[in-house]
Amino acid sequence: MKIDSQTYRLTDPGKGGTIALVAGIAGLILSGVGYVTNAEQFFHSWLVAFVFWTTIALGGLCFTMIHHLTGANWSVVIRRLPENLMVILPFMIVFVIPVLFGMHDLFHWTHAEAVENDALLQSKQGYLNVPFFMIRLAGYFVVWFVLSRLLFGLTRRQDNGDGTHDGIIKKMRVVSAPGMFLFAITLTFASFDWLMSLDPHWYSTIFGVYIFSGGFLAMLCFVTLAILALHKNGVLVKEITKEHYHDLAKLIFAFTVFWGYMAFSQYFLIWYGNIPEETVWFLHRWDGTWKTVSLILVFGHFVIPFFLLFPRAPKRSANWLRGLAIWLLLMHWADLYWIVMPTLHKHGVHLSWIDPVTMIGIGGVFVWFFWNRTAAVPLIPTNDPGLASSMKFVNS
Amino acid sequence: MSSTAQDVSGLPDSEKPLLTGNQTFASITATISGIVERKTPPIWYLALGAALSLLMVLFGSIGWLVYEGTGIWGLNNPVGWGWAIINFVWWVGIGHAGTLISAILFLLRQRWRTSINRFAEAMTLFAVSCALIFPAIHVGRVWVVYWTFPVPNQMGMWPNFRSPLLWDVFAVSTYFTASLLFWYTGLIPDLATFRDRAKTKIKKFVFGILSVGWRGGNRQWKHYELAYLILAGISTPLVLSVHSVVSTDFAVSILPGWHTTIFPPYFVAGAIFSGFAMVVTLTIIARKIFGLENMITVNHLEKMNKIILLTGSMVGYAYGMEFFIAWYSGNIYEQFTFINRAFGQYGWAYWIMVSYNVLVPQLFWFKKLRTSVPVMFVASLFINVGMWFERFVIVVSSLAQDFLPANWDYYSPTIWDVATFVGSFGLFFTLFLLFIRFLPMISMAEVKTVLPEADPHYVAPGTKGGHHE
């Protein structure tokens, strides 16, 4: 891997992208085999993998918009990585296609005979019906497409020195402010549609915020890993320093806590209220070996990373951070797995070879795409007026 | 980069100087100390007189309550929680901006906080003081208020540890203690400035004691800044925990409209929202009266308005989610509660809540409006009212019409409900007036750090050796 020190473009992007693509294609082929052998399992595994990678891309969009709106300086130098994640977002529509074919297996509310005999499902038909589901899905992707294209277009214009600094920054904000609102609404309803409606009787007002918290955390971990991978190859070592990943690690810590706060609020209020129509969701996740997964999430997604990220030293150590970021990504997957799979395997965890295969299938293509975008544009926003102060930023 | 020019309108926000009017270290000290050192203006006595009168109304109402009992309020059979709880939640909510500004914005390196943090923290303490009155008196028997604490009495009775009302006691008192310590720690360097400028022996003695021997040496600053950072870290979870716990007062029940999972973050967002609105209201008055337009600039106010727009919209999101999920749940009780909120007997309160809390902040999308002092002043008043009505809607509409129609009743307050609430403003403003008269209302030490001279890399204009040119 080599970088041009003038343009900050990778002159030699290395083999990482190709390896990811090969792995991805292999994963997709094997996923196809999974579909043939066990369609029901395939659709559920695929949904977990699809949501996992989509939430990371969504996190990239959100990070970019927050960066613009707050006028943050420290993050200028790492901004391009979340931006490249954001660019993938509209293309995730390709991976949603299998979900559409699997709707009958995934979503109980699509069964006409089930709805006929279920007063609750009938009352929800105005929302939970296939045509409206499709319209909403299209709506989400249109919003994500428009936002990510506009923001990426502006960042590239800034790179090329089009227009004035202030003009571009102002436009970025003009897009980002309403963008945050659209982001919140689309992410919330997407999480209702794709995850919460798997158990169509159950409902929780915090669900959208809960999925956001996990997805944003996963995005931070992904960006951290990308930076560490660049550093390993000696790229951007001077520009992105320990100080930046110290700040990233603080955000990872904050969002670990935020996820815990959301998960706790949801669980605790339902536990305390103890109304059967709400507790049923958690009871399924306490059945058989699901109990173990529930506890793994409590400790692995919150308690342990909380204590490991609390001190200063691990936040400034590349090796600790790498380990923690990988672990937390695994936990994000476990979280989604725990949300989706109990609808299929009701009485205990039933890991299948199709689970990792779908993750690698979508993930390989995702990483390849990300890497491809990263190699196609400068690695840092070279013309951002905040760049100099971002590079010399130190935590006092 | 020459920063002597006064025309900064073309600069992006991040590079605009936060203070205007060519401030120096000396001018900041002189301006802020001057407010306290100059002769007490007659208007202050007038204001204090008014505040004390209201305080007497509060004492009178509480006295009558203690003598007669909660029957003097408008409480009825389904609505056992009336204005007392509404006022409690409203005041606690207002208390949130202070710690958010002083702790969270500090951790996020938002340097504009320095002009408003002292002021907002003081407001927090006074608002929480007002809030604490209400749970203490709301059952009418203030002489057994110690029962709320886990103190074993002769009958070996303990408060129920699984009751959110007990968590409230811990959460709010912890919050008050931590905020007080944080506020006081921040005051120390400024108290020392007052000591050094004091003209009378008594003042020197009092401020000398209060400033705990502060000398401003290098080592002292080093320790001080670390202590401040640690206190900010400790206070940060409190900003979230207090109102989350307050939300559980409602949400752990199974009452439709109270029991919903989004309550903790929704209450926190609402608290920050109402707190910022109150900071804006008070700041606008104070900067006008004391001529602090160069310290608390329109730039500061605009940033606060952006936070109001953000948190107001978060509250709007929560209203929307509640409504949507009530429908989506298919639960007829949930559905009834929300339809009834909007179109039932308390529909007027619901629409006050929605329009003041969600629609009014949308004005701040426009730069012209969010930088206009009269507009933001009126908007902040609307928001203060709207957030009171939010708590009214939550407390009253859910209680008045719950599961059994036979239990339904209409709740309306009595004069004593109103008097107690209005009286609590007396306490708030009395404390506030005393604060602005005797203590520095802007943190002199901290606000100086935003001057270019405070930057270690600063090179004075006209001197050689700068590599920034």
How do you describe this structure in short?
Chain A has 396 residues and is mainly α. Chain A is 73% helix and 1% strand. Chain A has 17 helices and two strands.
Structure in words:
The complex is a heterodimer of chains A (396) and B (469). Chain A has two domains: 16-129 and 141-172 and 353-384, no CATH class; 202-351. Chain A is 73% helix and 1% strand. Chain A has 17 helices and two strands. Chain A has a two-stranded antiparallel ribbon. In chain A, α10 runs antiparallel to α15 (318-340). The longest helix of chain A is centred in the first third of the chain and has 32 residues, at 39-70. The relative contact order of chain A is 0.18. The mean pLDDT of chain A is 94. The model of chain B is unreliable at 1-10 (pLDDT under 50). Chain B has a single domain, classed as Formate dehydrogenase/DMSO reductase fold (Up-down Bundle). Chain B is 65% helix and 0% strand. Chain B is globular. At the A-B interface, α7, α9, α10 and α11 of A face α8, α9 and α10 of B.
State the helix count of chain B.
Answer: 16
Mean pLDDT of chain B: 91
Helix content of chain B: 55-70%
- CATH topology term of chain B: Formate dehydrogenase/DMSO reductase fold
Provide the helix percentage of chain A.
Answer: over 70%
> What is the multimeric organization of the chains shown?
heterodimer
CATH architecture of chain B: Up-down Bundle
* First-last Cα distance of chain A: 33 Å
Q: Could you name the key traits of this structure?
A:
heterodimer; A: 396 residues; mainly alpha; two-stranded antiparallel sheet; 17 helices; globular; B: 469 residues; Formate dehydrogenase/DMSO reductase fold; 16 helices
List the topology elements.
The complex is a heterodimer of chains A (396) and B (469).
Chain A: E1 2-3, E2 10-12, H1 16-37, H2 39-70, H3 80-88, H4 93-101, H5 103-106, H6 112-116, H7 119-124, H8 130-160, H9 165-194, H10 207-232, H11 242-273, H12 276-284, H13 290-309, H14 312-315, H15 318-340, H16 354-376, H17 387-391
Antiparallel strand pairs in A: 1-2
Helix pairs in contact in A: 1-2, 1-16, 2-3, 2-4, 2-8, 2-9, 2-10, 2-15, 2-16, 3-8, 3-16, 8-9, 9-10, 10-11, 10-15, 11-13, 13-15
Chain B: H1 25-37, H2 42-68, H3 83-94, H4 96-107, H5 117-137, H6 164-197, H7 201-210, H8 218-251, H9 263-289, H10 298-328, H11 332-343, H12 347-359, H13 367-370, H14 373-400, H15 415-438, H16 444-447
